[in-house]
Structures are given as structure tokens and as C-alpha cells.
Design a protein that fits this description.
The protein has helices at residues 22-41, 47-54, 58-66, 95-129, 131-138, and strands at residues 3-5, 12-14, 76-80, 87-88. It is 57% helix and 9% strand. Residues 81, 83-84, 86, 93-94, 96-97 line the site of one zinc ion.
């Protein structure tokens, strides 16, 4: 397993998918649970109030939001759409950009599909009219 530095305390540890060392990961999980609990009791609060109330760093909260582990009822100025920069409540894209992206993907799929269909058709036509094939068929 590759060695890496913990994102938080800098300890060298054998890195898995988690950028945090086991100790920090454990602490983060506890913080995360605390944040979830606090949000359940105080719905509609933003990152700053949550951070102040739970003593969790805003950076941690923002990371959870980007990882979609947490979502805010209230849009936060610190959580912005990666595409247009509009404040959002969770994830990395606003609804409009998400929609636009999925539409773009759909368009791409459509183009791809029609391309494949055209190729298939051309292939079929090619088979049909290939002269040597026809000659073979006619042969007794
Ligand atoms: Zn650590
Ligand atoms: Zn956007």
C-alpha cells in the first residue's frame, strides 16, 4: 500500500482511499455524526452556524457537502457550483448546471446512436450490394 501524509495532521500512514490517517478519520467520523445530529435538531442552518455550534472546521463541513454526505437547507456562499459559481446546498453543481450537463450527455448519446445506426445501415447496404456476394448466391 502506498504511503501518504494525512490531510489533517500530516502523519505518514499507508494510504487507502481515505486521505486521513486512522486517528483523524475516526475523529472526522465522530464530527460528522455530531454535525448530522446538530442539523437534525437545527434544520435550515448554514455552514457557519453549524461550524460554530459544533466546533467543526468549516473546511470539513464543506468537504462533506462536496462529497454529498451532508446537505444544507440554506444555500451557502462558501459552497458554489463548479460550473457557474452559483451558491448551492450540496454536491458540486447547481440544479441548472446538472440539468444542462445531463442534457448535453443525452445529446451526445443521441449523436452517437445515430452515428452507429448510420454505420450499421451502411454496413447492411454494403453487404446487400456487394457484387461478389451476389454472384455467389446466384451460383448453383
Ligand atoms: Zn491524521
Ligand atoms: Zn451552476
Amino acid at each position: 500500500m502506498p504511503l501518504g501524509n494525512c490531510l489533517k495532521c500530516g502523519t505518514v500512514f499507508s494510504r487507502t482511499n481515505n486521505p486521513l490517517c486512522p486517528q483523524c478519520a475516526q475523529k472526522e467520523e465522530a464530527d460528522f455524526q455530531a454535525a448530522v445530529r446538530w442539523l437534525r435538531d437545527n434544520p435550515g442552518r448554514n455552514v457557519t452556524t453549524l461550524s460554530k455550534a459544533t466546533n467543526i472546521e468549516e473546511a470539513d463541513i464543506l468537504r462533506w457537502i462536496r462529497q454529498k454526505r451532508l446537505s444544507m437547507k440554506e444555500v451557502s456562499e462558501s459552497v458554489k457550483c463548479n460550473s457557474c459559481g452559483k451558491p448551492i446546498t450540496t454536491g458540486t453543481l447547481c440544479d441548472r448546471c446538472k440539468l444542462r450537463m445531463s442534457q448535453e450527455v443525452n445529446e451526445e448519446l443521441k449523436t452517437l446512436k445515430s452515428q452507429i445506426e448510420k454505420e450499421n445501415m451502411a454496413q447492411r447496404r454494403g453487404m446487400h450490394y456487394r457484387p461478389d456476394e451476389r454472384r455467389k448466391e446466384i451460383k448453383p
